[in-house]
Amino acid sequence: MARITASVYTSHVPAIGAAIDMKKTGEAYWQPLFAGYEPSKQWMKENTPDVIFLVYNDHATAFSLDFIPTFAIGCAAEFMPADEGWGPRPVPKVIGHPELAAHIAQSVIQDDFDLTIVNKMDVDHGLTVPLSLLCGEPQQGEAERGGAPSWPCPVIPFAVNVVQYPVPSGRRCFQLGQAIRRAVESYDQDLKVQIWGTGGMSHQLQGARAGLINREWDNAFLDRLIADPAELSQVPHIDYGDAG
Amino acid sequence: MALEKPYRDIPGTIIFDADQSRKGYWLNQFCMSLMKAENRERFKADERAYLDEWPMTEEQKQAVLARDLNWCMRTGGNIYFLAKIGATDGKSFQQMAGSMTGMTEEEYRDMMIRGGRSIEGNRYIGEDGDAQEHRQPQGAAGKNKGA
Hints:
The structure holds two protein chains of two kinds. Chain A has helices at 14-21, 31-46, 98-110, 125-135, 140-146, 170-185, 215-227, 229-232, 237-242, and strands at 3-10, 51-56, 71-74, 78-79, 94-95, 116-118, 155-160, 192-198. Chain A is an alpha/beta fold. Chain A has a six-stranded mixed beta sheet, sandwiched between helices. A two-stranded antiparallel sheet of chain A has the order 4-5. Chain A is globular, with a radius of gyration of 18 Å. Chain B is mainly α. Chains A and B meet through helix 1 and helix 9 of A and helix 2, helix 6, helix 7, helix 8 and helix 9 of B. Chain B: It holds the Pfam family LigA.
């Protein structure tokens, strides 16, 4: 049976990807950030799963205003890095796991969650920056073994809408997470699956309030995420809006 | 019943809801088109001509030509889409974010290195934080712009 071996969480700021791609990770501005990821990268090397289920948000890349799925699961065999306006990131294509993805889609939909099934899409920095941060740069050695450099394992992309209000509630996301766990654990192959989550803590991108960071709120959120996620899931959206 | 909008009392913030989405549909679809290299080249070669291919309002076109992201958002632009204009211009997101505050790139970057903008006075309209209407524009870039 498949089992969830770990959950992993990281930011995915596009500039982090650009810093990696432009070989700036050693610069004084960036060094503290990349040094902070070293233990996690080492841990990933020692605990590489068979599949990563990566929950992220699409930044108006795969989905324009034509279609705005609240939850979308990538069931394709592969996903290309997207061109977000500065050309695609120079990273390997993402290999999917269509069989497990289809199983999860079926299980979760039959569990009453209405997922959008995606059979073709490009993936943006929301998905590729976490892979770069935790897996490191795909090595030349890997290329020698099988051709092009590749990520260490297949990835199932799972996108959550944050582009247009309303976004799903914390309660819905928490319940969906429980359904995904039931789905993974009912898959009949012996796979180690990691669940990744990525997004931002409190931060505002736009307008005169751009740059807002509420460190106290963030730390309390992270503590509650570990200690009492069910209770945390009850926090209303408006609290995310005005404080976090 | 009209849309319920409990988020209207947050200063310096436009929540991208269904009303904004309808208003900004073509502006945002134009931004989306900049994900193709050939479209970026055509836009850069003649911005006005490229914009005229889209059924955007004149104000939306002016806001794009001025690279005034706050203006773009007032006309229905969404920051995730607008970021593609910045990418086309070779700007980092930090530069784009800074441009919306009136701060110079250095001022914005310094604020972020110091831990970001404080929530104090910036939760609700009518407080006295630096994101409030009566405190705009912030920083040297905004001051110089008015001069």
